[in-house]
Amino acid sequence: MLLNYLYANFYEEASLLKQSQISRDKIQLFIREKRAPQPSYVIDANLGAVSFVSQATLSENYRFYPKTYPNWLNILRSEKLDTGDKAKEYFKQAYQAAGQSFFESKLGNDLLEEHPTLPDYLTPVHFNETWDHFLGGVFGVCTRENLPQGIFEKQLLVRFIDYMKQHHSPENISPLSKSRLQTAVSFLNKVEADFAPHEVPTTSRQRCINDVREQYKI
Question: How much is the pTM?
Fold first, then answer.
């Protein structure tokens, strides 16, 4: 099940290199220079291989990267992000632009009416942690896009839904607040990854999507 999920949703390293027309040495250089993320999954496998020809025990290492990884590599090239600092600054500007656009939207305004202090977490410390998680391959696991906009939306929606759960019980939530909660859950479902089957029970997908839909009947 895990390998089926990974091959359906990620590029194994050989496929990424072919897709992006780049060498493994170059990818490793970008990672060391903190310009590109590490793989989101690394699988060390001991395999028993049985065929008509032979039986063998093989040790294999597989690295899986998000399918939007080539998009980030293209950004590095097109924007001439040849240092880690330049890559971080580009990411920061794109992340902040995503936030501004979101809060200017109707959904953003609705969320602020429910939770006026929602943006307070957007501090320099938070951004630095977000960048570190991006480089560590974390958002390749938990977002569909693994790019600044999707990362911003995922983080914000999880915070909003957790807040709503704390302040509105299923029995006492108003129709308007319930409608806004439902919209936020639907949006999060679009930007957050499905996660590998063994991961789902401990993730925000379970807490903020599956559980909320069941508890609030949405």
Answer: 0.93
